[in-house]
Amino acid sequence: MDDHHTNLRRGFNWLGSATVIAKLIDFGTTLAVLWFLTKDQVGIGSLVWSIAFVVEATEGLGTGAAIVQARSISRLQLDSVFWFTMGIAVIAGTLVWLAAPLIEGFYAIPGLALYFLAVIAKLLFVGAALVPLQMLNRELKYERIAVINVCATFGAAVTRLAIAAMGGGAWAIVIGYAVHGLYMLIGVQIANPFIPRLRFQFRAIDGLVKFGMRAAAAETMQQLFRNVDYMLVGWFYGPASLAIYRVAFDITMEPAVAIGELINRTALPVFARFSAAKERVRQSFVWAIGRIVTLVGPLMAAFFLCSDGLTGLIHDANGVSYAAAALPLKILAGAAVLRAAYQLLYPLALGTGKPGMAVRMSASTLVLLTAGLLAAGMLFDARQGIVAMSMVWLALYPMLLLWGARFVVKNYEIDMGELVKPLAMPLTATVVMVATVTLVRLLSNGRDPYLQVTVAFIAMGLTYAAMFWYGRRRAAAAAVTE
User: Fold this and answer.
1) Fewest C-beta atoms under 10 Å: which of 128, 135, 392, 473?
2) Which pLDDT tens digit goes with each residue over 195-238?
3) How many CB atoms lie within 10 A of CB 418?
């Protein structure tokens, strides 16, 4: 097998397995945390968390992506990038501290400013971990990255759950967010120890910073795009409505975000390594898009099918269910599949030396999404508004995917038939899964929420097993032919 396919497959296997494990840990503990927190507390924690991710996107001004993309990197450059990154983290932390009272006044939530201390702490943790982590990415050491991610997620999940059980309220979510950065720093120093030398030359990293600033602009707009809905739901409708929206969003879109992170970590260094070989880039992209839909499609179908039962089973600290999240969850499940596919364009653009395109994609997505969310917030009340904002996500991606397809066809000479071919099997399998579960429900008239969830996820498991068997059979047949 070609090196690029080997690297992609190994990255998807290791980082994909780690992502699944991490998300299961995160999802399970998040549901448990909901039982200890009121909807207002969940909303406050989510609001701080969403703003924090936007700030964190400026970490190192994109020099992490520049390290991965660079043809060669010296020890002087690594030392200089480390101190540059820590300086940016200190500046960003200072600005967060100054802005915190203004944010508190904007949302009219007493005590909101104090939570941003955790945000400042994570900026420092992530800044210190950036160089050794990106060197692992550059060297395609997916196994070590996978272990670090799982351990950091597990540590943060346990910390979050413990604080929630002790009555920590919104602090459980905020501190859980911050300590994930601490555990990442500890893990990466164990896996790839890096002690920076006391030297700094800006001339040595001038090219990295120039590339990184464009990558950082794209990442900042990406994070704004990922979190602007939280900010606007909290502003228009308050923390309790934000909690309902977050439950629907976390269940559906979070797996899509996880797939996006997996793609960035796996595909970016592969695209960068083979950027001069257009044929290899094309083959890698087609392979990756098929794998994304295979991973995301059946999972989103399962959430769609059991949304009523699942949200009815989730309760807050007051014993009130999250049933109002059912309809937004169904809508966002469809949008999540499209979003996961679209996210592959970012590492493709960055890895092949087109950060400007990544910036344009991020800016366009952010503008369209924000405009739609603002319109929904101004036109609808809280209950209808959450549904309307979910519909904005679903309406956004068909337009973006058409634009992205044109970019791919023009720049990488990928035929549309090549893009459609790997989607046939997962889409067919998902349609069969939905039809089967729907038929079973009609015949059994089952409305029990536990039964709904169980049947949907059994069907999902069987679908994944069938696709895996089919894939292995095709691979064996191809090997015999060769």
Assistant:
1) 473
2) 999 898 888 888 888 877 877 777 787 788 888 999 999 999 99
3) 16
**Which whole-number Å values give the CA distances from 392 to 92, 228, 344, 398, in the listed order?**
31, 12, 21, 11
Closest CA to 268 of 359, 355, 365, 356: 355
Distance CA 429, CA 437 (A): 12
CA pair distance 109, 255, nearest whole angstrom: 30
* Residue in the block written with tokens 């890895």: 351
Nearest to 41 by CA among 97, 116, 115, 96: 115
Please give the single-letter amino acid code of residue 463. Answer: T
Terminal CA-to-CA distance of the chain, rounded, Å?
Answer: 12
Beta bridge partners of 34: none
Confidence of residue 143 (pLDDT cuts 50, 70, 90): confident
Spatial CB neighbours of 175, under 8 Å, sequence gap ≥ 6 = 118, 159, 160, 163, 168
Across 379-384, average pLDDT: 88
pTM: 0.79
Enumerate the β-bridge partners of residue 470: none
| Helix pair 355-379, 202-237: axis angle to 10 deg | 10
How many degrees, rounded to 5, is the angle at CA 148 between CA 140 and CA 296? 75
CA gyration radius, the chain:
22
d(CA 218, CA 212): 10
Q: Which residues contact 194 (CB under 8 A, 6 or more apart)?
A: 78, 82, 131, 132, 135, 188
Domain count, the chain: 1
* Domain region containing 21: 3-481
